[in-house]
Amino acid sequence: MVAAFLHGWKMEMVLLLVFPAIAIAFHLKIRTVEQHRQKHHRLMQPANDVVTECIQKIRTIRAMGGEEIFRDLYSKRLRAPYNARKKHAKVYAVVYALSESGVHVLYAASFKFGFFLIRSGLMDLVKVYRIFFALGICIISMSHLLTYRQEWITAENTLHKLFQLVRGHCDNTECQSKSKC
């Protein structure tokens, strides 16, 4: 951000108005994908249970000729995730189309203003591109930070509990009932 201000504050001010909208659009796409991934994982659990049970009891199933039964059961359990994925494809297509079209309109406006600054002699081409790249990298970094924030919090909490167990300090009642921490 500082590098962008050093090379041209006018272009920086325009981009500071534009890039938050771009970051929000990117975050919306990522969030949509993540929500549907979690839902898909939950919907796939019954089918995964059928496969796990089949693998655990493979000899019995083979001896009794139950392959057809398990295949049919597995197929039935896959219908819900399949239908959910079809719906998700439509939702994601709309979200993707809207966010990308908005992003490209904002890019076009930013480049148009940059062209105006270059043409009027207020900035040179290299400075305009330096500003674009500096802010682009900042926005990408922030969107990745927002995307992986929840995973970071979960990992941090898990490590904290693990270190408590290693040190012998449990605040979890389930842990205390199983062993002396």
From TrEMBL:
- InterPro entries with a match to the protein in the record: ABC1_TM_dom, ABC1_TM_sf, Type_1_exporter
- Supply the Pfam families for this chain: ABC_membrane
Superkingdom of this entry's organism?
Eukaryota
> Where is it chiefly localized?
membrane
Where is this chain's protein located in or outside the cell?
A: Membrane
Provide the transmembrane region boundaries: 13-30, 91-109, 129-148
Species of origin reads: Cryptotermes secundus
Gene3D superfamilies, alphabetized: ABC transporter type 1, transmembrane domain (1.20.1560.10)
Q: Which intervals hold domain ABC transmembrane type-1?
A: 1-154
A molecular function annotated in GO for this UniProt entry is: ATP binding
**Sorted alphabetically, which keywords does the UniProt record give?**
Membrane, Transmembrane, Transmembrane helix
The protein's name: ABC transmembrane type-1 domain-containing protein
Q: How is this protein annotated for GO cellular component? A: membrane
Membrane topology designation: Multi-pass membrane protein
